[in-house]
Structures are given as C-alpha cells and as structure tokens.
Amino acid sequence: TGAGDVFAAAFLVKYYQTDDPVESSRFANCVASFAVEEKGTAGISDFDRLIKRASLMGIDL
What are the residue boundaries of the Carbohydrate kinase PfkB domain, all occurrences included (predicted)? Predict the structure, then answer.
C-alpha cells in the first residue's frame, strides 16, 4: 500500500518543522491513513481531504 513510506515521509517533514515526535507521529498517521483507503496514489493526492481529516483529528498543519 505504501503506507509505511507515506508515514515515514510525513513524519520526517513534520518533525523537521516542529521537533516534536508526538505531533509528528499524529500527523504521519493521519497522512498514511489515506494510503490504505484507495489503490495506488489516488488516496493521497487530495490536499483538501488531508486538511479536513487533520482538523477533525485536532492536528495543526
């Protein structure tokens, strides 16, 4: 599914921005959740969906 790759990339980006491993993990879980919902990269290509889901999870982008 690529969820692990997506998680790793999202974690590193957020950690670079915040230096907070907990917030980075929460963000990475949110982003990686899209990778298991649809085949290929279709699930992770919509930034608006990411913003909505992160907001519902209480994650600041």
Answer: 1-43
Question: How far, in Å, CA of 40 to CA of 29, rounded?
Answer: 18
Query: pTM value?
Result: 0.79
Residue 36 lies in a domain: yes
CB proximity list for 61: less than 8 A, separation 6 or greater: 27, 50, 51, 54
Q: Per-residue pLDDT tens for 7-54?
A: 999 999 999 999 999 999 999 999 888 888 877 667 666 788 888 888
Please tell me the distance from the alpha carbon of residue 26 to that of residue 1, in angstroms, as a whole number.
Answer: 19
Residue pair 33/1 in contact (Cβ under 8 Å)? The answer is no
